Each structure stands twice: as C-alpha cells, then as structure tokens.
Amino acid sequence: MLTIRWLGHAAVEIKFDGYKILIDPLLKDNPMNKVPIEEFKDIDLIGITHDHYDHLGDALELMKINQKAKLIATWDLENFLNKTHNIPWERMIPANVGSYIDVDQVKVALTKAVHSSEHGDPTGIVIKLGSTTLYHAGDTGLFEDMKLIGELFSPDYAMLPSGGRFTMDPYQCGIAASMIKPKKAVIPIHYNTWDLIKVNISDFEKYVKERGFKPLILYPGQEKEL
C-alpha cells in the first residue's frame, strides 16, 4: 500500500509497504503540523530539497530519533551536514541532479529547481515506489526544463509549491502541470503557512483543471492512499 500525508508547508510523509519517507521535514516550527516529532519513528529515508530552514527543518533531530534512517540531498549539503553537524557519511546517500539511485526498496533521483540555497543547488526529488512515481518539486519557480522532468520520469503525482513570492503561484502551477504531465494528480504544497505565501487554493484547482489535469488538495495532516 502507498500513502501520502501532507504535514503542511513542504513537509510530506510517504509510506510504501512499511517503508517510510519524509521530505523537507519542517515539523516543530510548522504552524500547520499538529503531529509531535516524537511520533515520527521508524523513518527509513529523509529527503532534503535545499537547506533553507523551512525545508531542512527538523532533519537533524529526526536522524537522531531514527538511528537507521538515511538522508539524501545534494553532495554539497551533505558535506556541510557532515562537517558542521557530524552526520556520518555512511548515513547519507551522495547525490546530485541526475539519474535514479537505488535506495533500499525504492528509487530516488534529484532534479533541477530554480530557487536559492546556501550549500549546493536547490533540487526537486523524484521517488519511484513500485509502479508509482512521485515528484516533489521542492521550492522552485516555473522553468521550461520541467518538460524534461516529465519526459524522463513520467510521474504519476506532482507536488508543486503554490504560494507565490518565493515559488510558483497557482496560475504558474497550471502551466507547470502542462509541462510535467502527471498521469494521476497534482498536489499543492508550500502555501498558506504564513501570510507571505497566502493564496486562494481554489485558484490552484481552477488552473490545474483548465490545463486538463486532476488537482488533489490535501488538508494538513490528511493521509491519502494513492
């Protein structure tokens, strides 16, 4: 069984046949998240799209809580985490934008994102779980290479930042969907956490539908079987 739970902002939990993944795990300072960090046990993989505090989030504490968890991010960010926070290399998966990497029972790839970051380039994350592929775009503006991401990875679901100002807005997410062409649904993330990224999410639904794709809007904490 494959499920996804949006924890608010860009934080997403994915479960696949008992395998647990957290992406951009902002938990404690996330006003949308109501789940205590102590409940996130037995995490197998933590994915970090870039090192802004609202995406690196509570990854360091989660690595301590979950002693068997592995972390994937760009090599530059991992090098920073190793040297500054003593995360051992044997618990990190060296990577950069490129092809799939086999990680335990899933496949993971990092993709381009148009944003900023202090250590290494920002990325998106593609995860292939069995026959289903999910694309978490991280923080990004609209860029034409999204067509390549769609062509290379053919995602079933695309999670797109929708709050504007720092990332795409709902209108631009509709254009992004038309380039990525997710086969099943488009999920909005990174919106309404704070006033600076406050949008009317019904606009996301409207613009995605106008492009011929299915919007899937989750409320914070909602878990959905895919």
Automatic annotation (TrEMBL):
Domain Metallo-beta-lactamase intervals: 8-190
Top-rank taxon: Archaea
Signal peptide: none
Any GO MF annotation of the entry: hydrolase activity
Pfam families named in the record: Lactamase_B_2 (PF12706)
Entry keywords, A to Z: Hydrolase
SUPFAM superfamilies named among the record's database cross-references: Metallo-hydrolase/oxidoreductase
Family statement: Belongs to the UPF0173 family.
Protein name (database record): UPF0173 metal-dependent hydrolase GC250_04775
